[in-house]
Input
Amino acid sequence: MSDLKTHSCEACSSDAPKATGEEKQQLHKDVPDWEILDIDGEEQLHRIYKLKNFVKALEFTNRIGDLAEEEDHHPVIVLEYGKVAVSWWSHKIKGLHKNDFILAARTDAAFNNMQ
Amino acid sequence: MSDLKTHSCEACSSDAPKATGEEKQQLHKDVPDWEILDIDGEEQLHRIYKLKNFVKALEFTNRIGDLAEEEDHHPVIVLEYGKVAVSWWSHKIKGLHKNDFILAARTDAAFNNMQ
Output
């Protein structure tokens, strides 16, 4: 059982180190439903969630918004009827930081709490 | 000054007629900031709005959600920090119905009300 969602995020500046290959491999085990995608040379964590309808998808979007504001770290969210797609990455370092895995874990927890 | 936002939406079934070329041209004049994009053979209305930050973008997303639920017609919304991209089209007819232009006009009005 992962406790990554309980970890603290660190301040992420443009000179913060990206997660290394080994770190990513380890962190990915805690958020196995997320894909690591390479978008124009920047790695991103990506997951699509299915929800019952538009209202539920919007409610989930708001919960993700709360997580994002708490950490001042913001994803891209694609919201449509019954579906929410989320991408987390660290714009400043053009790739993945441990924070992105923590936020992905918290997004999973928010989704699980809605079920 | 457009009053398209005050028009009523019609029930849209899979045998509803798509807007004709001439109708689209006319309706488009009322929502000139929207692009008509061809996505995999289906026309969609598309507009990107700039907002001050994530909270404002999320607030606008919720207002669009209210419009969508009122008419039981749902867009795709891409939400990110300071930016909301909206696509309206009629899935059932795989293209544009007058309703989409009405909802685009209402989305513009919701945005203008936030300024």
